[in-house]
Design brief:
aminoacyl-trna synthetase (chains A, B), about 575 residues, 15 helices, alpha+beta, five-stranded mixed beta barrel, aa-tRNA-synth_II/BPL/LPL (chains A, B), cytoplasm (chains A, B), OB fold (Dihydrolipoamide Acetyltransferase, E2P), ligase (chains A, B), homodimer, eight-stranded mixed sheet, ATP binding (chains A, B), BirA Bifunctional Protein, domain 2
């Protein structure tokens, strides 16, 4: 049985994605009141309709007053049993046609078609959806009008378990991912009900978040919620994040989360294959390691503790401890009051550190290799997820350098390029001053034009732009053996060779205006004083930035599972 | 060329593991002074010997005054070049015999044999060691007496790069892991020197830590450091942890670290294969979730933040967000002033959560299966590491139940066993009160005797012993669908089914004396109010406990890379 074809695909189906204030409660206070009023009105309407129906049935005009199917639907109890074999929607195949199966799923849509038939869309695991049909018209079936009505009235995003016969529809169902089969429901139990109105509907959750610029303005003005953008309801990033269950149920969110895990897994897989050993640096540390700026402090029994800003020192301790190559994946913390789409106060770092045998470019090339492994893994194994994200957040393919043609500029070459070919405001940039974000973006555009890549390395940063542990270039002590990696003109990795001899480290600490014996730094230098430590280097990658810039998303906050910013600590 | 066979293997070789105060500085203040005095004396002795030698050479009795090999040794510079191909000790094979190779390694031992020959032990990557020989006697070789002496005097744990010819010794070298080859050094450069005295020598670092009971007594008395136990120098746990580079260089430490990573990797591997998706819960949260006990608090811009005590709520949010099965690996924090070998203030949790289809035992069986996968993976793939650990920390093989014969007791059955067959002090234990650690251990011993397993499940904990989110057993509401997993009589996992209906959750929160609208709890319940959430359950495993109890180590602090306790925040 096929539902009459719909004219609009799911994300814009008005039944699924009601206007603001209808199926979705708006998040502004004004909107919330409106929605409440509307919901009340509708509940009243439904109550009256039910009364009329009951009267009609009592007068004998509408069918039996006794519900012959009452065992086949309703709220589940712990004695409810459905012996049919359970299947997952992704497994549905020709072999199931005509068979009775059990499916556990969310109600993505439910509506009556006349008085005797209801259609539901059932969703399972991300975006596997199938059409369900229930009809009281067929004789001999354990389906009553009351049952049909109850199913047709199920709230969106309720969780149900159904028993159904698998059938082939007369024509493919366009509105669901499973188009070649439909489920003819004979039992349906409510496992977990959804509320009357959703804080964020699946339709809005599945669309791009409202413009961040617009949102910042609103946030300043104290307004939050849905905005009507070219006639389509668009939810703000804040609305998404305040409704985590619905935000995460959107296929685009699950695709982004899947790509994020893939980046982490590909990182670990490549390093394991190259004899790197994983370890876990601590988050709680006894002293602020780099002068104390932007560090979270907390009372710790009778002392004070700090949250680690990076695993830097601990990666180096592992090398001092006899590991040749190490990596770690874990949270790092920055108490920086930066409210930009690039910043979070807690984020996952992908870090590695390794012994250098001859030249620090061994490390740089290892980092390039692991990132290229990640990019290639994504573009081959996650094509479907990438396309799904692009259908919501359009982007151009991420351009990679040709094999063996990696693009590596020195910092000085980058500044020279900016001076000669960049926008006029950068005609005086200096070789011994760090780059600003606008400079980075302008250089990214120049590199893309010149070398046809969105991924390149900026090497040999000036000493002034790097922390005290960076190794100066022995041939030119004003620059360091340190680099940043760029994606679409934005930094995603910082790294380099570290000073491994205690006297050189002490000298550089002093040159930076710090004291090698101050708390936090002393314990670090002590490790290099305590044993011989071979030359080594590494780098740290911001996981969420890699994903955000690879997919050209408007914010890292759309990538992180639970983003933390100066203004956001929940959910 | 073979060194005369040594009578003692490495860890007890007196040349390698000098008595306290010689090669190792003792950590007690008294010991430190003694060591300093001794070091001064020896430096003076060496200076005098060098003077004598110089005089002898000047008088023509000892050889040429000019050092013909001075380019072949000394401190490395950035222009030093050794073109020979580099090899790693683990790769050394017959094909290298007679070839000249480059090796980068630590000096594990160095000593003169007469005036013209020196022996070194070179160590690379964990416990790969090889014997190196350098001799000024052979004519035509670029080796001078001065060079031999310089090599023979290298400080232990310095890092060097050598050029050497690979030779087969006359008989196998017993003192090194590589016994079938030795290296005849022709060049040797110091890359990173070690200090005159080590804070912890490799010998003591490679032995078991001093008795923890003894250490606690000392700690109370304010004494720390090496203790002489049955004639062998033994370093305390504190000494180990205060000397991270040397502690970690010990083969036993590296084996424990390797086993720890293996547990994590096996956990992730099994879950990925069973369609679990990884995610990252936040560490910074906006409210103390379970009443505020034992939680770290910190200033967060204008607000207050808390460090997550578990990923519990976030795992459930993922299920609410449409994931069927999730897992995470990351730090959790407990502000508990517990100074025991089982506790840390920060530890890595291995957590999972999954939808329940029919019965919560699906989750329990999944957790059993992942742990059995880990145990089997360890016993087959990490046999060598386990034996190495056992050579230092003896233990009996970890007993597993036979396939399909997993041991599962209810809490009530466990208490009954304790009452009937346990020690007299447990003859009155109650079914509705939580177990103490001594009870757990006594029960573990009884289960081992009765069922021949060190791994079993205790199911159906009383409501009083579980948090508010635990699902009561519908057939007996005084107990929960919640369990602990035990290893060698100690808990390593807590888990169970969670309440998924908001009204049931609110009722239980009230029954526990909490307010469903208090900060931290409201945001949690709101998620279950916002959408329908299917039944689900999970569990959390303490990574360090699994490793410690599997290997029967005296403390989790020997497992964690950088343990954090109320008294320890560094390194």
């Amino acid at each position: 049985m096929a539902e009459p074809p719909k004219e609009t695909p799911i994300p814009t189906d008005p039944a699924l994605t009601p206007a603001a204030g209808e199926g979705e409660a708006s998040q502004s206070k004004k909107g919330a009141k409106k929605a409440e009023a509307k919901a009340k009105k509708e509940a009243e309407k439904a109550r009256k309709a039910a009364e009329r129906e009951a009267q009609a049935q009592a007068s004998g005009s509408g069918g039996a007053t006794e519900d012959l199917a009452k065992e086949n639907y309703g709220e589940i109890t712990h004695t409810t049993s459905i012996p049919a074999p359970q299947i997952h929607l992704r497994e549905l195949g020709e072999e199931h046609v005509g068979k009775t199966v059990k499916v556990r799923a969310w109600i993505q849509n439910a509506r009556m078609q006349g008085a005797k038939m209801a259609f539901v869309e059932l969703r399972e695991e991300g975006n596997w959806t199938v059409q369900g049909v229930v009809s009281a018209s067929a004789e001999g079936k354990p389906v009553s009008r009351q049952m049909v009505k109850w199913i047709g009235g199920l709230k969106l995003e309720s969780f149900v378990v159904v028993e159904a016969s698998v059938q082939k529809p007369l024509e493919p169902v366009k509105s669901t991912k499973v188009s070649g089969f439909e489920l003819h429901l004979v039992k349906c139990y409510l496992v977990a009900p959804a509320p009357e109105t959703l804080g964020l509907g699946l339709g809005a959750a599945s669309r791009a978040v409202g413009s961040l610029a617009e949102e910042e303005t609103k946030e300043e003005a104290g307004v939050e919620g849905l905005s009507i953008n070219e006639g389509t309801p668009v939810a703000s990033l804040a609305t998404h994040l305040n409704n985590p269950a619905m935000h995460k149920r959107a296929p685009v969110s699950q695709a982004i989360a899947d790509i994020r895990i893939a980046v982490e897994d590909l990182f670990c897989e490549y390093l394991r294959a190259h004899r790197f050993k994983k370890f876990h640096p601590p988050s709680l540390i006894g002293a602020a390691s780099e002068g104390g700026a932007n560090v979270f402090r907390l009372p710790y029994f009778e002392k004070e503790a700090f949250l680690a800003q990076s695993p830097q020192f601990y990666k180096q301790f592992e090398i001092a401890g006899g590991r040749k190559r190490v990596y770690c994946v874990g949270p790092v913390f920055r108490a920086e009051n930066s409210n930009t789409p690039r910043h979070m106060t807690e984020f996952i770092g992908l870090d590695l550190e390794m012994e250098i045998e001859e030249h620090y470019h061994e490390v740089m090339h290892m980092l390039e290799a692991v990132l290229l492994h990640i990019f290639k893994g994504l573009s081959t194994q996650y094509r479907e997820e990438i396309e799904l994200v692009r259908s919501v957040y359009p982007s151009e393919e991420f351009l990679l350098p040709k094999d063996g043609k990696e693009v590596r500029l020195t910092f000085a070459e980058g500044q020279a390029l900016l001076r000669s070919e960049g926008p006029p405001e950068f005609e005086d940039v200096k070789d011994d001053e760090d780059m600003s974000t606008p400079q980075e973006k302008a250089l990214g555009a120049l590199v893309r034009k010149k070398y046809n890549t969105d991924f390149y390395v900026l090497d040999k940063f000036p000493v002034a732009a790097r922390p005290f542990y960076a190794m100066p270039d022995p041939a030119n002590p004003e620059v360091t053996n340190a680099y940043d990696f760029m994606m679409r003109g934005q930094e995603i990795l910082s790294g380099g060779q570290r000073l491994h001899l205690p006297h050189e480290l002490e000298a550089m600490i002093r040159r930076k205006g710090l004291d090698p014996n101050q708390p936090g730094i002393k314990e670090y230098v002590d490790v290099f004083r305590s044993v011989g430590v071979p030359p080594h280097g590494g780098g740290g990658i911001g996981l969420d930035r890699v994903v955000a810039w690879y997919l050209n998303l408007p914010s890292v906050h759309l990538v992180c599972d639970y983003p933390r910013t100066p203004k956001r600590l929940s959910p």
